[in-house]
Amino acid sequence: MSGQKQQCAYLGVDPIVVFGRLIVLAKRGPDAETEPGAWHTPGTIVRIGQSMEVAMCDRVRQKTGLVVTPLCDTMQRSLVGIYDSPERVEKYGDVALSFLCRVVDGAMVPGERIAEVRAFRADEIARPDHMATLKIGFDHAQILRDGIARLRELGEIE
């Protein structure tokens, strides 16, 4: 199978991490395999035998040092969206679900292959010119726009 093109998409989770009224992003380190130096939501691929919630919480902690829980009472109510465009699947090999989660403990400490962890105001990242300046990686600009809109609907941010 080595050298053959991937035939199936993986399942990914890309959380929107809410810290107070701020949104936490991680900056990929210079040794990252894809998009080094890009800011992103601290997501991951869901492993066999792992729930999306466990995958999300574990990866956020590994990448940022923060302990999170779903923002709403269930993962379904915390859902931001499903990101399954053919371009995404072709480029990154996964279909991602994005969820809102809230920081409940921990301290911002960059994990392996993460250069920096930082909390941003929504207006610092929501505008297209700010997203370009920050170098938002992958297709996370759309995920962040959708997440910010959902947070505003819920009254979590202004």
Please characterize this protein's 3D structure.
- This protein is of the alpha+beta class and 158 residues long.
- The chain has one domain: Nucleoside Triphosphate Pyrophosphohydrolase (Alpha-Beta Complex).
- The chain has 6 helices and 9 strands, in the order βββββαβαβαββααα.
- Strands 1, 2, 3, 4, 5, 6, 7, 8 and 9 form a 9-stranded mixed β-sheet that branches.
- Strand 2 and strand 3 form a beta hairpin.
- The longest helix is centred in the C-terminal third of the chain and has 14 residues.
- It is globular.
- The relative contact order is 0.25.
Defining traits:
about 160 residues, about 30% helix, about 30% strand, globular, nine-stranded mixed beta sheet, alpha+beta
